[in-house]
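Dear support,

I submitted the protein below through the web form. The confirmation email said the job was done, but the results page showed an empty box. After a refresh the structure appeared. I'm attaching both so you can tell me whether what I see now is the final result or a partial one.
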Amino acid sequence: MKDFFDIPRPSYTFEIFPPKGSNNLEGTYATIDALASLTPDMISVTYGAGGTSRENTLEIASTIQNRYNICGVAHLTCVGSTQENISEILKELKAGNIRNILALRGDLKEPSDLGEFKYASDLIRFIRRTQNDFRVFAACYPEKHIEAPSEAEDLRRLHEKTACGVDALISQLFFDNDVFWRFRDRARSIGIETPIVAGIMPVTSATQIEKMTTMCGASMPERVLRFVNAYGHNSHAIKQAGIAYATEQIVDLLARGVDGIHLYTMNQPDIVRSIDENIRGILYSMRVKRD
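What the results page shows now:
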Protein backbone atom coordinates (compact mmCIF):
# COMPACT_ATOMS: atom_id res chain seq x y z
CA MET A 1 0.00 0.00 0.00
CA LYS A 2 1.34 3.42 -0.95
CA ASP A 3 2.49 5.62 1.91
CA PHE A 4 2.54 9.38 1.48
CA PHE A 5 5.70 9.60 3.57
CA ASP A 6 7.71 7.33 1.27
CA ILE A 7 7.41 9.68 -1.70
CA PRO A 8 9.98 12.30 -2.73
CA ARG A 9 9.59 15.93 -1.69
CA PRO A 10 8.12 18.38 -2.46
CA SER A 11 4.88 16.41 -2.46
CA TYR A 12 2.13 17.05 -5.01
CA THR A 13 -1.43 16.36 -3.90
CA PHE A 14 -5.06 17.14 -4.74
CA GLU A 15 -8.37 17.56 -2.92
CA ILE A 16 -11.77 16.60 -4.33
CA PHE A 17 -15.28 16.59 -2.89
CA PRO A 18 -18.11 14.02 -3.16
CA PRO A 19 -21.41 14.93 -4.83
CA LYS A 20 -23.75 16.82 -2.52
CA GLY A 21 -27.03 15.07 -1.74
CA SER A 22 -26.45 12.23 -4.18
CA ASN A 23 -24.99 8.74 -4.25
CA ASN A 24 -24.33 8.94 -7.99
CA LEU A 25 -20.53 8.86 -8.15
CA GLU A 26 -20.17 8.62 -11.94
CA GLY A 27 -19.10 12.25 -12.29
CA THR A 28 -16.73 11.97 -9.34
CA TYR A 29 -14.97 8.97 -10.84
CA ALA A 30 -14.66 10.77 -14.18
CA THR A 31 -12.93 13.58 -12.26
CA ILE A 32 -10.63 11.09 -10.52
CA ASP A 33 -9.78 9.45 -13.86
CA ALA A 34 -8.64 12.82 -15.19
CA LEU A 35 -6.71 13.74 -12.05
CA ALA A 36 -5.09 10.30 -11.69
CA SER A 37 -3.52 10.71 -15.13
CA LEU A 38 -1.49 13.58 -13.61
CA THR A 39 0.08 11.12 -11.13
CA PRO A 40 -0.47 13.01 -7.85
CA ASP A 41 1.06 11.58 -4.70
CA MET A 42 -2.23 11.75 -2.84
CA ILE A 43 -5.89 12.65 -3.33
CA SER A 44 -7.94 13.68 -0.29
CA VAL A 45 -11.73 13.48 -0.17
CA THR A 46 -13.77 16.00 1.80
CA TYR A 47 -16.45 15.17 4.34
CA GLY A 48 -19.81 16.97 4.26
CA ALA A 49 -21.01 19.12 7.14
CA GLY A 50 -22.13 16.90 9.97
CA GLY A 51 -20.88 13.85 8.09
CA THR A 52 -23.55 14.14 5.38
CA SER A 53 -21.29 12.60 2.72
CA ARG A 54 -19.70 10.01 5.01
CA GLU A 55 -20.46 6.93 2.90
CA ASN A 56 -19.38 8.63 -0.31
CA THR A 57 -16.18 9.90 1.28
CA LEU A 58 -15.21 6.43 2.49
CA GLU A 59 -16.07 4.75 -0.81
CA ILE A 60 -14.22 7.31 -2.93
CA ALA A 61 -11.10 7.35 -0.72
CA SER A 62 -11.01 3.55 -0.73
CA THR A 63 -11.35 3.45 -4.53
CA ILE A 64 -8.52 5.96 -4.93
CA GLN A 65 -6.33 3.82 -2.70
CA ASN A 66 -7.21 0.41 -4.10
CA ARG A 67 -8.18 0.88 -7.74
CA TYR A 68 -5.96 3.80 -8.73
CA ASN A 69 -3.04 2.90 -6.43
CA ILE A 70 -2.80 6.53 -5.30
CA CYS A 71 -2.62 7.41 -1.63
CA GLY A 72 -6.23 8.08 -0.60
CA VAL A 73 -7.02 10.33 2.35
CA ALA A 74 -10.45 10.50 3.98
CA HIS A 75 -11.42 13.73 5.70
CA LEU A 76 -12.96 13.04 9.09
CA THR A 77 -14.87 15.67 11.06
CA CYS A 78 -15.95 15.23 14.67
CA VAL A 79 -18.68 17.87 15.12
CA GLY A 80 -21.67 16.21 16.72
CA SER A 81 -19.88 12.86 17.00
CA THR A 82 -19.46 10.46 19.88
CA GLN A 83 -16.49 8.22 20.55
CA GLU A 84 -18.66 5.30 19.48
CA ASN A 85 -19.43 7.02 16.14
CA ILE A 86 -15.77 7.69 15.46
CA SER A 87 -14.76 4.16 16.42
CA GLU A 88 -17.20 2.77 13.87
CA ILE A 89 -15.88 5.07 11.17
CA LEU A 90 -12.30 4.06 11.91
CA LYS A 91 -13.32 0.40 11.52
CA GLU A 92 -14.89 1.22 8.16
CA LEU A 93 -11.75 3.04 7.06
CA LYS A 94 -9.62 0.01 7.92
CA ALA A 95 -12.02 -2.28 6.08
CA GLY A 96 -11.60 -0.08 3.01
CA ASN A 97 -7.79 -0.26 3.28
CA ILE A 98 -7.63 3.45 4.11
CA ARG A 99 -4.84 4.37 6.49
CA ASN A 100 -4.75 8.14 5.99
CA ILE A 101 -7.06 10.61 7.73
CA LEU A 102 -7.34 14.39 7.61
CA ALA A 103 -8.67 15.04 11.12
CA LEU A 104 -10.89 18.13 11.40
CA ARG A 105 -13.39 19.56 13.84
CA GLY A 106 -15.79 20.56 11.06
CA ASP A 107 -18.02 23.59 10.60
CA LEU A 108 -19.85 24.60 13.74
CA LYS A 109 -23.30 26.18 13.55
CA GLU A 110 -24.11 26.14 17.26
CA PRO A 111 -21.91 25.37 20.31
CA SER A 112 -24.36 22.60 21.18
CA ASP A 113 -23.35 20.81 17.95
CA LEU A 114 -19.96 19.83 19.38
CA GLY A 115 -20.81 16.41 20.78
CA GLU A 116 -18.02 14.62 22.65
CA PHE A 117 -15.20 16.31 20.71
CA LYS A 118 -14.55 20.00 21.20
CA TYR A 119 -11.50 20.44 18.95
CA ALA A 120 -9.71 18.55 16.20
CA SER A 121 -6.98 17.86 18.77
CA ASP A 122 -9.53 15.82 20.77
CA LEU A 123 -10.22 13.73 17.67
CA ILE A 124 -6.50 13.23 17.04
CA ARG A 125 -5.88 12.17 20.64
CA PHE A 126 -8.72 9.66 20.37
CA ILE A 127 -7.35 8.21 17.13
CA ARG A 128 -3.88 7.89 18.60
CA ARG A 129 -5.18 6.39 21.85
CA THR A 130 -7.31 3.75 20.16
CA GLN A 131 -5.47 3.06 16.89
CA ASN A 132 -1.83 2.75 15.89
CA ASP A 133 -1.88 2.27 12.14
CA PHE A 134 -3.26 5.54 10.73
CA ARG A 135 -1.36 8.45 9.26
CA VAL A 136 -2.99 11.61 10.59
CA PHE A 137 -3.03 14.89 8.70
CA ALA A 138 -4.39 18.13 10.16
CA ALA A 139 -5.25 21.63 8.97
CA CYS A 140 -3.41 24.87 9.66
CA TYR A 141 -4.31 28.47 8.87
CA PRO A 142 -1.64 30.88 7.59
CA GLU A 143 -3.90 33.83 8.48
CA LYS A 144 -5.23 32.12 11.65
CA HIS A 145 -8.47 30.24 12.11
CA ILE A 146 -11.44 32.55 11.71
CA GLU A 147 -12.57 31.78 15.28
CA ALA A 148 -9.16 32.27 16.92
CA PRO A 149 -8.82 35.44 19.04
CA SER A 150 -5.24 36.09 17.83
CA GLU A 151 -2.46 34.66 15.70
CA ALA A 152 -0.46 33.83 18.83
CA GLU A 153 -3.33 31.85 20.31
CA ASP A 154 -3.96 30.09 17.02
CA LEU A 155 -0.31 29.03 16.85
CA ARG A 156 -0.37 27.87 20.47
CA ARG A 157 -3.33 25.64 19.69
CA LEU A 158 -1.66 24.39 16.51
CA HIS A 159 1.39 23.41 18.56
CA GLU A 160 -0.89 21.52 20.94
CA LYS A 161 -2.63 19.82 18.04
CA THR A 162 0.55 18.68 16.31
CA ALA A 163 1.88 17.36 19.62
CA CYS A 164 -1.12 15.01 19.77
CA GLY A 165 0.40 13.01 16.91
CA VAL A 166 0.03 14.80 13.58
CA ASP A 167 2.15 13.46 10.72
CA ALA A 168 1.73 16.46 8.40
CA LEU A 169 -0.15 19.76 8.20
CA ILE A 170 -2.06 21.00 5.15
CA SER A 171 -2.66 24.73 5.02
CA GLN A 172 -5.89 26.54 4.30
CA LEU A 173 -5.87 28.48 1.03
CA PHE A 174 -3.93 31.74 0.80
CA PHE A 175 -3.08 34.16 -2.00
CA ASP A 176 0.01 35.91 -0.64
CA ASN A 177 3.05 33.65 -0.36
CA ASP A 178 4.72 35.97 2.12
CA VAL A 179 1.80 35.31 4.48
CA PHE A 180 2.52 31.59 4.22
CA TRP A 181 6.25 31.96 4.86
CA ARG A 182 5.71 34.23 7.86
CA PHE A 183 3.31 31.66 9.26
CA ARG A 184 5.74 28.79 8.65
CA ASP A 185 8.62 30.70 10.26
CA ARG A 186 6.51 31.48 13.33
CA ALA A 187 5.41 27.85 13.56
CA ARG A 188 9.01 26.66 13.41
CA SER A 189 10.07 29.25 16.01
CA ILE A 190 7.71 27.74 18.61
CA GLY A 191 8.81 24.18 17.94
CA ILE A 192 6.39 22.92 15.29
CA GLU A 193 8.58 20.68 13.11
CA THR A 194 5.77 18.84 11.31
CA PRO A 195 5.89 19.14 7.48
CA ILE A 196 3.64 22.00 6.30
CA VAL A 197 2.07 21.53 2.87
CA ALA A 198 0.82 24.67 1.12
CA GLY A 199 -2.85 24.65 0.08
CA ILE A 200 -3.48 26.45 -3.22
CA MET A 201 -6.92 27.23 -4.65
CA PRO A 202 -7.00 28.62 -8.20
CA VAL A 203 -9.43 31.48 -8.69
CA THR A 204 -12.08 30.28 -11.14
CA SER A 205 -14.91 32.75 -10.55
CA ALA A 206 -15.60 35.91 -8.58
CA THR A 207 -18.47 34.24 -6.71
CA GLN A 208 -16.40 31.19 -5.76
CA ILE A 209 -13.49 33.14 -4.39
CA GLU A 210 -15.69 35.57 -2.46
CA LYS A 211 -17.45 32.63 -0.78
CA MET A 212 -14.25 30.80 0.08
CA THR A 213 -12.39 33.81 1.47
CA THR A 214 -15.41 34.73 3.60
CA MET A 215 -15.56 31.20 5.01
CA CYS A 216 -11.86 30.86 5.83
CA GLY A 217 -10.76 34.47 6.39
CA ALA A 218 -8.06 34.55 3.70
CA SER A 219 -7.07 38.02 2.52
CA MET A 220 -7.09 39.08 -1.12
CA PRO A 221 -3.96 40.89 -2.38
CA GLU A 222 -4.53 43.89 -4.61
CA ARG A 223 -3.26 41.95 -7.64
CA VAL A 224 -5.94 39.31 -7.18
CA LEU A 225 -8.70 41.85 -6.57
CA ARG A 226 -7.64 43.67 -9.73
CA PHE A 227 -8.09 40.71 -12.06
CA VAL A 228 -11.22 39.48 -10.27
CA ASN A 229 -12.80 42.92 -10.74
CA ALA A 230 -11.58 43.19 -14.33
CA TYR A 231 -12.49 39.69 -15.52
CA GLY A 232 -15.21 38.58 -13.10
CA HIS A 233 -17.91 38.87 -15.77
CA ASN A 234 -15.92 36.75 -18.23
CA SER A 235 -15.66 33.11 -17.09
CA HIS A 236 -12.91 32.16 -19.53
CA ALA A 237 -10.78 35.21 -18.78
CA ILE A 238 -10.98 34.84 -15.00
CA LYS A 239 -10.09 31.14 -15.22
CA GLN A 240 -7.03 31.92 -17.31
CA ALA A 241 -5.98 34.66 -14.90
CA GLY A 242 -6.55 32.30 -11.96
CA ILE A 243 -4.43 29.60 -13.58
CA ALA A 244 -1.62 32.09 -14.20
CA TYR A 245 -1.73 33.39 -10.63
CA ALA A 246 -1.81 29.91 -9.05
CA THR A 247 1.09 28.87 -11.28
CA GLU A 248 3.08 31.89 -10.13
CA GLN A 249 2.34 31.08 -6.49
CA ILE A 250 3.45 27.47 -6.88
CA VAL A 251 6.65 28.29 -8.78
CA ASP A 252 7.63 30.72 -6.02
CA LEU A 253 6.77 28.24 -3.25
CA LEU A 254 8.84 25.52 -4.92
CA ALA A 255 11.78 27.87 -5.36
CA ARG A 256 11.69 28.70 -1.64
CA GLY A 257 11.66 25.09 -0.47
CA VAL A 258 8.03 24.31 0.39
CA ASP A 259 7.34 20.84 1.79
CA GLY A 260 4.55 20.21 -0.69
CA ILE A 261 1.74 21.61 -2.84
CA HIS A 262 -1.89 20.65 -2.19
CA LEU A 263 -4.28 21.81 -4.94
CA TYR A 264 -7.89 22.44 -4.02
CA THR A 265 -9.23 21.22 -7.35
CA MET A 266 -12.93 22.14 -6.88
CA ASN A 267 -13.51 19.04 -9.06
CA GLN A 268 -12.29 20.93 -12.14
CA PRO A 269 -9.60 18.72 -13.73
CA ASP A 270 -9.22 21.04 -16.72
CA ILE A 271 -7.98 23.79 -14.41
CA VAL A 272 -5.63 21.38 -12.64
CA ARG A 273 -4.28 20.05 -15.94
CA SER A 274 -3.42 23.56 -17.12
CA ILE A 275 -1.54 24.28 -13.89
CA ASP A 276 0.15 20.88 -14.06
CA GLU A 277 1.46 21.62 -17.55
CA ASN A 278 2.98 24.84 -16.23
CA ILE A 279 4.71 23.41 -13.15
CA ARG A 280 5.46 19.76 -13.90
CA GLY A 281 8.97 20.29 -15.27
CA ILE A 282 9.99 22.42 -12.28
CA LEU A 283 8.32 20.19 -9.70
CA TYR A 284 9.82 16.91 -10.84
CA SER A 285 13.29 18.34 -11.37
CA MET A 286 13.28 19.40 -7.72
CA ARG A 287 12.03 16.22 -6.09
CA VAL A 288 14.60 14.61 -3.87
CA LYS A 289 14.17 11.17 -2.29
CA ARG A 290 13.78 11.34 1.46
CA ASP A 291 16.59 9.91 3.54
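Response: this is the final, complete result; the empty box was a page-load delay. Residues 10-282 form a domain with the TIM Barrel fold (CATH 3.20.20.220).
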